[in-house]
From TrEMBL:
Domain ABC transporter: 7-239
Compositionally biased tracts (Basic and acidic residues): 281-292
Protein's name in the database: P-loop containing nucleoside triphosphate hydrolase protein
PANTHER family xrefs: SKFA PEPTIDE EXPORT ATP-BINDING PROTEIN SKFE (PTHR43158:SF2)
Keyword Disulfide bond included in the entry's annotation: no
Species annotation: Lentinula guzmanii
């Protein structure tokens, strides 16, 4: 296996304009991100909503142009020389109107080259428990998600970026999928970067875990399970679920403390002083509230 890292990111900072914001309003989504991931690794990104996980995966997939820092996959700049065999799978696919049309699953998979990957396609059909006679418009979100996974994984990918894409799967199918991905990294040296909020059944999956908060790595990708000399991780617990709970609780406590110290504005949770426009809206809705 090549000693060249699968992923190398250096001094990456990324900002974007918020929805509905003015052109000169910017939000810093990633701050001075640096990481290196070896080939054959399975890295789990852990962090709360808005921590920067999806933005990072989008940039790795070449879907967001950057202006500060460098992003290389297998030694190639993802914006200047997009690497082959890189697959990104996110949740937005299943909501696309184009994949909800009345098309038979077998025809759908063949339309994206399934006939070229018959052996891997058939293996995934068994793992994901897919009926080739399903019609895309008539199946559940979870079943449509299985088709997406089959479509994305049936070729021999080298880097797989997963963004919450297993959220619709039942536990049996998800377990089969994770075992398949693990075999791909072991047998072919493929690499997986996986962002999720579901930690049951994951303890034996990752080779590395990372903690993201406010757009930076609180803990850069670190080998999992932790070695005895990594006392900080060892003290946090024996499961990814317990560690994730601890990290997210610490993130929230830090945010609340900074709000009290005036280091950031309080925008979440209850509001102690109702703004005038909130009072006006409340008065309006009280006047036309027909729920009683």
């Amino acid at each position: 296996m090549s000693s060249q890292p699968a992923v190398e990111i250096s001094k990456l900072t990324f900002s974007h304009s918020p929805p509905g914001g003015r052109l000169n309003d910017t939000v810093v989504a990633l701050r001075d991100v640096n990481l290196s991931l070896p080939r054959g690794s399975r890295t789990l990104l852990i962090g709360g909503n808005g921590a920067g996980k999806s933005t990072l995966l989008y940039i790795l997939a070449g879907k967001r142009m950057i202006h500060q820092g460098s992003v290389n996959v297998f030694g190639k700049d993802v914006f200047k020389d997009f690497p082959p065999n890189l697959i990104y799978l996110g949740t937005e696919w299943a909501m696309n109107a184009g994949v909800r049309r009345d098309i038979v699953v077998s025809d759908f998979l063949n339309s994206v080259g399934g006939y070229r990957h018959k052996q891997r396609r058939d293996h995934l059909l068994d793992i994901l428990d897919i009926d080739l006679d399903w019609h895309m418009h008539a199946i559940s979100d979870g079943e449509r998600r299985r088709v997406q996974l089959c479509m994305g994984l049936m070729g021999e990918w080298d880097l797989l970026l997963l963004d919450e894409v297993t959220v619709d799967l039942d536990v049996l199918v998800r377990d089969g999928l994770l075992n398949f991905l693990k075999e791909e990294t072991i047998n072919r040296g493929a690499t997986v970067v996986y962002a999720t909020h579901i930690f049951d059944g994951l303890n034996d999956f990752p080779t590395h875990i990372a903690h993201m908060c406010d757009g930076f790595f609180v803990l850069s990708p670190t080998p999992w399970p932790p070695s005895a000399d990594n006392t900080e991780l060892v003290k946090m617990g024996t499961t990814l679920h317990s560690i994730a709970l601890r990290w997210l609780a610490d993130d929230r406590a830090l945010r609340i403390r900074e709000e009290k110290e005036g280091k950031r504005s309080k925008t979440r949770g209850r509001r102690s002083n109702t703004a005038p426009d909130d009072v006006d809206r409340e008065s309006f809705y009280k006047k036309y509230d027909y729920s009683h």
